[in-house]
Amino acid sequence: MTxxxxxxxxxxxxxATRPPYYTGKNPASQxxxxxxxxxxxxMIGALALxxxxxxxxxxxxxxxxWDGLDELDVVLFRLEGFSFAISKHDGNPLGVSYVWLxxxxxxxxxxxxxxxxxxxxxxxxxxxxxxxxxxxxxRIATRETGSPGEVPSGTLPISLWARLRSAVGMxxxxx
Length: 175
Hints:
Radius of gyration: 19 Å
Number of helices: 5
Order of helices and strands: HEHEEEEHEHH
Structural class: alpha+beta
Shape: elongated
């Protein structure tokens, strides 16, 4: 077979994995398998620990991936009829791992309880249950107005990490 030579990249092309995507001169933009799949997942909570201890307990292989926020550790697995993903971004200032169902399920609380039971950890390792967006709205409204039914006005956070910190009550929504 004849060897085919492919020319190298143009000198002014940025790496295809760098956000903001579709900017710069490189005609390609690359996304990870995680970035492609995660929008379909159902967030069911967060754990106050990294991915590795859960993976070690269940003898899972931790994969490295990336998305528009940062690089991350992730495991995907099935457990007692539920399909889980657990992820933790390197730059996550909260230090939590997010728990997802890769196939949405109406018994999300049961799924999280099953995970806690099999892994052998207590409820106090759960930072929050449900979706961070729902949690953020309740926490911010309660903290800033005193009642969960009243949503305050204000400017949006300037970064995704700021929104995430706000979701779990670490800072105000505008810092």
